[in-house]
Amino acid sequence: MNKPLKAKEAYLKALELDRNNADLWYNLAIVYIELKEPNEALKNFNHALELNPKHKLALFNSAILMQESGEVKLRPEARKRLLSYINEEPLDANGYFNLGMLAMDDKKDTEAEIWMKKAIKLQADFRSALFNLALLYSQTAKELKALPILEELLRYYPDHIKGLILKGDILMNQKKDILGAKKCFEKILEMDPSNVQGKHNLCVVYFEEKDLLKAERCLVETLALAPHEEYIQRHLNIVRDKISSSGFVEQPIFPTSKTSGVEEGDRIPAESINEIRGESRQTQIIKMSDNKSLSKSNKQLGKNRDKEPPHKTAKDIKEIEKKRVAALKRLEEIERILN
C-alpha cells in the first residue's frame, strides 16, 4: 500500500514478540530502503544474517546495498556475500552479474569478464550483462570484441539507446564505418529526437562526411537542446572556422570510400557513452512473510539503470506455493489460538 512508516511500526511490534525471526529483520531492512535509510537497512540485513547466515535474499540485497554505497572498504564483504549467494542459488544469473559489476568497480577486468559471461550463459537475453560486457571491452581497448556483444544486445533490445551509441562510436572510431555509425545515431533520434549524445554524434558524422553546412545546422540544433554544454559550442566554432577558411558556398558530401579528409587539428570527437558505469545493477527486493515471498523491484539509485526481472524456475514457483500453503496453515493456527 506504499505506507512504509506503518509497515515499519508493524515489523517493530512483531520483533518485540519474536526477535529471532530472520525474515522480520529482513523485511524491516526493506522498509528502511523504501525510507531511503541505507545504513539502517544494512544493520537489519546483518541481524537477519546473524540469525540465518544462509538467508539468500539478505545475502543478495545486503551485498548490493554495500556495492551501491560506493564505499571501497565494504566491497570485500559484498563480494563474500555474493559468492555465498551463488553457492545457494547457482542458477540465478543476477548473482554472477553483480559479481561482475563489483569486479568492474575494482578494475578487475578479467574477473569481471568471466562473471558477465557466466550470467549471459545462464540468461542469454540478460540486457544489463550484455551491455556491461560490451562496455567493459570498449573500456579495455577491445572494441572489436564489443561489437558482436552489442549486435546480440540490439537483437533482443533494438531500442537500447546506450547500446546504439556505443556501437556507433566503435563503428566510427575503430572500424571507420561512417555509414554504419550514421544509421545508429539516426535510429536513436527516431526514438528520442531530443537525445543530445545521439544528435551531437550525428553532427560529427556530417563533419566526417565533409558536409560542413549540414554539420553546422546540426550543431546549432544540438546546442538549442543543451545550451550549457561547452563542448557543443566548441565544436560548432571549429565547424564555422572551417567553413570560413574554406570560403565555399556549398560543400559536397565525400563518397563513403573517403570519409575522413579532415585535418587532425580540426577533428571533432564523437561523444562516447557518459555516466554508464553501473547503469544496470539489479537490486532484487523480496518481502518475506512467514516464508511466503512476494517479489518487488527496488527503485534504482543513480542514473540510467536498467532493471532486470528476477528469473524464477518451475521449481521456485512450486516451492513458493508450498510456503504459501504453510503460511496459511500458520495463520489458521494463530486464529484458532486467538479464538
Overview features:
Protein O-mannosyl-transferase tmtc3, mainly alpha, single chain, 4% strand, TPR_rpt, elongated, two-stranded antiparallel ribbon, TPR-like_helical_dom_sf, TPR repeat, 339 residues
Structural description of this entry:
Residues 282-301 have a biased composition (Polar residues). Keywords: TPR repeat. Residues 282-319 are annotated as: Disordered. InterPro entries: TPR-like_helical_dom_sf, TPR_rpt. This protein is mainly alpha-helical and 339 residues long. Helices cover 65% and strands 4% of the residues. It is built from 15 helices and two strands. It has helices at 4-17, 22-34, 38-51, 56-69, 75-88, 93-105, 109-122, 127-139, 143-156, 161-173, 178-191, 196-208, 212-225, 230-246, 314-338, and strands at 284-289, 292-297. Strands 1-2 form a two-stranded antiparallel ribbon. β1 (284-289) and β2 form a beta hairpin. It starts with a helix and ends with a helix.
N-end to C-end Cα span: 28 Å
Structural class, by secondary structure, is mainly alpha
> Which assembly state applies to the chains in this document?
single chain
Shape: elongated
Count of helical segments? 15
Largest beta-sheet characterization: 2 strands, antiparallel
Classify the helix fraction into a percent range.
55-70%
Task: Tell me how many strands there are.
Answer: 2
What percentage of the residues does DSSP assign to strands (E)? under 5%
Sequence stretches where pLDDT stays below 50 over 5 or more residues: 249-266, 274-312
Q: Strand order, main sheet: write it out.
A: 1-2
What is the succession of H and E elements?
Answer: HHHHHHHHHHHHHHEEH
| Rg, alpha carbons | 26 Å
Give the overall pLDDT as a whole number.
Answer: 82
